[in-house]
Amino acid sequence: MTGARLLLLYAKSRRVPFALLAVAGCAAGLRLALLRQWDAYGALQLPLIFEAAAAVGVTATAASPLGEPERVSVRWLPYLRSAVTLALTAVAVGLLCSAGIGGHLAGGTLDVLRNVTGITGIGLLCATALGGGLSWTGPTGYLVAAVYALYTQWHPPALSTPWLWPARPPHDLGGALCAGLIFACGLAALTARGARERPADPDAA
User: Fold this and answer.
1) What is the DSSP string of 2-53?
2) pLDDT tens digit string along 20-35?
3) N or C end of the chain, less CB within 10 A?
4) Whole-prediction pTM value?
């Protein structure tokens, strides 16, 4: 089996085309939303929602319908997991940043990069711990916490922990390190173990 054919089969089994459509839809939605004027709070909150949705689209590809047979038969599987996840994350960051060109994208490119990678890492950790079908729970829960952290910037006392990096300035080193660490841990866990298999969920792997 050639490398290109193996990659194609892997992408189909992980529903990568649908993930790309979802990410593109998030970018299009962000672009349309940026056409109108938002107050300071809304301008920060709005991109975060689309960034979290794009991260969910990326982490959804952790689930496999094949399960254990795939683990046994495909020795390149760990490399495919990491390569496809990295590529999808890069595409998500690129499309969301492109959506902000010509508009007022609060936080800019650095904020998009930090938020997408960090939230994707949370989803990858959930996939390895809970199963691919539940990978969305971590990013969704984190989104709620991050939105509240942004809220406290206008209604003190403010939450300033770097683990809630969306509420930190785009150039904040602590927030960037936390987001990068979470993504690295999530990618390493997915590469080594894959998504947890859940017998009751035929789509989990």
Assistant:
1) -HHHHHHHHHHHTTHHHHHHHHHHHHHHHHHHTTS---HHHHHHHHHHHHHH
2) 999 999 999 999 988 8
3) N
4) 0.88
